[in-house]
Amino acid sequence: MDLTGLGSVFDFAKGIMDKIWPPAADPNKKLEAQILLQTMLETRENNLIEASKSVIVSEMQQGDTFTKRARPCVVYAGLGFIFLNHVFIPVFAFFTNKPTPTVTLPAEFWWAWTGVVSVWMIGRSYEKAGVVNTIVSTITGNKPVVNSVLSTQTDTNR
Predict the structure, then answer these.
(1) Res 70: pLDDT
(2) Using CA atoms, how far apart are residues 3 and 23, in angstroms rounded to an integer?
(3) pTM for the whole thing?
(4) What mean pLDDT, rounded, does the chain reach?
């Protein structure tokens, strides 16, 4: 099992070399080219990972907290759409003696909304239960709170 992901880079580089290098060519030169290609691919993968990491870190450190409030915003907006479509419009139509318009929310809305709500609710449940880790903090958008009693104890034990 390849946990680092480098095995796929090596296999990819070897596959390219097998396809573009002539079979009668010197195997040592082919191996040198394969190693060079592997190094270039590793560098590319590392650069992509670092770029993704820096974007995520900068989003979480920015002053605008909407990025952190986006999940609750999606939850509440979805509740608003559901209320409007399944409660307000039918009640309004009932009291005005007009036929209820047929408005259906698309299946994509339900899939996306239930996915966001499920993940957010699980994260909030763990957070309220006192679980403090990076996964829960990422889901809820809240920074983990350091217990001052624990930090005081660790400082005195040093």
Answers:
(1) 65
(2) 32
(3) 0.42
(4) 76
Domain edges within the chain: 6-60, 64-157
Report how far residue 113's alpha carbon sits from residue 77's, in angstroms, rounded to the nearest whole number: 9
3-state secondary structure of 147: coil
Amino acid at 61: Q
CB atoms within 10 A of CB 56: 11
**Amino acid identity for residue 89 in this structure:** I
Whether the Cβ atoms of residue 69 and residue 79 lie closer than 8 Å to each other:
no
Tokens of 93: 């139509």
Taking residues 9-21, what's their average pLDDT?
72
The percent helix, strand, coil of the chain (3-state, each to 5) is 75, 0, 25
DSSP codes of every residue in 51-68? HHHHHHHHHHHSS-THHH
Give which of 146, 147, 148, 124 is closest to 137, Cα–Cα: 124
